[in-house]
Automatic annotation (TrEMBL):
<protein>
    <submittedName>
        <fullName>Restriction modification system DNA specificity domain-containing protein</fullName>
    </submittedName>
</protein>
<dbReference type="Pfam" id="PF01420">
    <property type="entry name" value="Methylase_S"/>
</dbReference>
<comment type="similarity">
    <text>Belongs to the type-I restriction system S methylase family.</text>
</comment>
<keyword id="KW-0680">Restriction system</keyword>
<keyword id="KW-0238">DNA-binding</keyword>
<dbReference type="InterPro" id="IPR000055">
    <property type="entry name" value="Restrct_endonuc_typeI_TRD"/>
</dbReference>
<feature type="domain" description="Type I restriction modification DNA specificity">
    <location>
        <begin position="6"/>
        <end position="171"/>
    </location>
</feature>
<dbReference type="InterPro" id="IPR044946">
    <property type="entry name" value="Restrct_endonuc_typeI_TRD_sf"/>
</dbReference>
<dbReference type="InterPro" id="IPR052021">
    <property type="entry name" value="Type-I_RS_S_subunit"/>
</dbReference>
């Protein structure tokens, strides 16, 4: 430990207080085939609940031998320890050979406390460092056995668990809220836009329009002399984000200008969904290899156009345009003749406003959940090193969401 521990804490090696399971079983055997089987992909990055849906060894057609894990044990993915995949088992089950089931000495360690130790920054850094020394993205038993662990008295372990569990529950509630809001947004997008793209809809008042009628390509170059701080790239799932200096050209004069609310994409990656609208209040730049377009004034609402992209009709058109190509490049001309159905601009604006408000609400909830995770990790570091103490005055009895740091010293 780089920091001195409180006088009533002890320090020991992982191997002195923990046992990693040995011996594997046949998942095809009657005793095991109906047990839940967990692989590294089922454990959420950064720890927490298992990624669902889960299935049995039989349902997964498991053949190779597996470890058994028991409720109250910690299971830890030895593959790519930088992902910090740790789970506190609330069920009995089987796990792949890439996962270690770990049992801690219950005389020295409260089971749930051991879970937070493995998630903690000190253990995480030591495991990642060991994997880097070996040159293989995994950590073995010997490497784990020598990692140093700081242990507070059992009573304080219990108090630490009570606090960290409160954050876990708050994060879990946030994640469930995010999932619910995502489902609501997806359903609204289908109801307000997707459903009207079906040409056979009897009462469909939306008129068919070629894409070039509602969108126009922009080819303006960087004649204003904007610098590297304005250069963006499209990352799927993240949108337009700043590019690193080493991947941009020294001369930015040929770079394309993306005005606010305009849309940009890389022609070679459009078929995988790498396309984004600018959320910036000022002009930004993208590589001259990109395509930039925007909603035609008086014909399309920018927000509506943004949500229109990605509908089934859009995706089907991309497949048609790109069929037969070894390396698909889809330029604006390849989009121009795509026929989509659109309402009048007033209705487009109404729909765009509704979906934008729902999208912003979802984004706010995601950011709040991210802040909770950051807070928990900072708190975990303080509590697991003894920098912050929870003495006997701390009362873990209130409901987790009401737990506080009373009694911190």
């Amino acid at each position: 430990m780089t920091r001195s521990l409180p006088s009533d804490w002890t320090s020991c090696a992982f191997g002195e207080i923990a046992t990693i399971a040995n011996g594997q079983v046949d998942p095809k055997a009657d005793n095991y085939r109906n047990m839940i089987l967990v692989g590294p992909d089922h454990i959420r990055e950064g720890g927490g609940e298992l990624v669902t849906p889960l299935s049995t060894a039989l349902e997964q057609d498991a053949i190779s031998r597996k470890y058994i894990f028991k409720k109250g044990q910690v299971i830890y993915s030895k593959i790519r320890p930088n992902l910090n995949k740790v789970y506190f088992a609330e069920i009995d089950g089987l796990c792949s050979a890439d996962i270690y089931p770990i049992e801690f000495s219950r005389k020295l360690v409260i089971p749930k406390f051991s879970y937070y130790v493995l998630l903690g920054e000190s253990f995480f850094k030591a495991a990642v460092s060991a994997s880097m020394r070996s040159g293989i993205p995994k950590v073995n038993r010997d490497d784990l056995s020598i990692i140093e662990i700081a242990l507070p008295p059992l009573a304080e372990q219990q108090r630490i668990v009570a606090v960290l569990d409160a954050w876990d529950q708050a994060i879990g509630q946030s994640e469930r809220l995010i999932a619910a809001k995502q489902r609501r947004f997806d359903a609204a997008r289908v109801r307000l836009i997707e459903a009207y793209q079906a040409s056979g809809k009897g009462s469909n008042s939306w008129a068919p329009a070629e894409f070039s009628e509602i969108a126009e390509e922009l080819k303006q170059r960087n004649t204003a002399g904007h610098g590297p701080d304005r250069v963006m790239g499209v990352i799927k799932g993240e949108g337009l984000i700043p590019m690193r200096a080493h991947v941009m050209a020294a001369d930015l004069r040929r770079y394309l200008v993306v005005p606010p609310q305009a849309i940009a994409y890389n022609p070679m990656r459009l078929n995988i969904g790498s396309i984004a609208a600018s959320r910036y209040d000022e002009d930004v730049l993208v590589s001259p290899d990109y395509v930039v377009f925007r909603a035609r004034k008086s014909r399309a609402d920018p927000n509506f156009l943004r949500f229109l992209i990605g509908t089934k009709r859009w995706r089907d058109h991309l497949i048609t345009v790109g069929s037969g190509s070894v390396r698909t490049r889809i330029y604006f001309d390849g989009l121009a003749e795509m026929v989509l159905r659109v309402p009048d601009v007033r209705e487009q604006k109404r729909i765009g406003q509704i979906l934008t408000a729902m999208e912003e609400d979802l984004k706010t909830t995601i950011e709040a959940a991210s802040a909770l995770r950051i807070q928990q990790r900072g708190l975990m570091q303080k509590l697991l090193t003894g920098e912050w103490r929870l003495d006997e005055r701390f009362d873990p009895s209130p409901a987790p969401r009401q737990a506080h740091l009373g009694g911190v010293s």
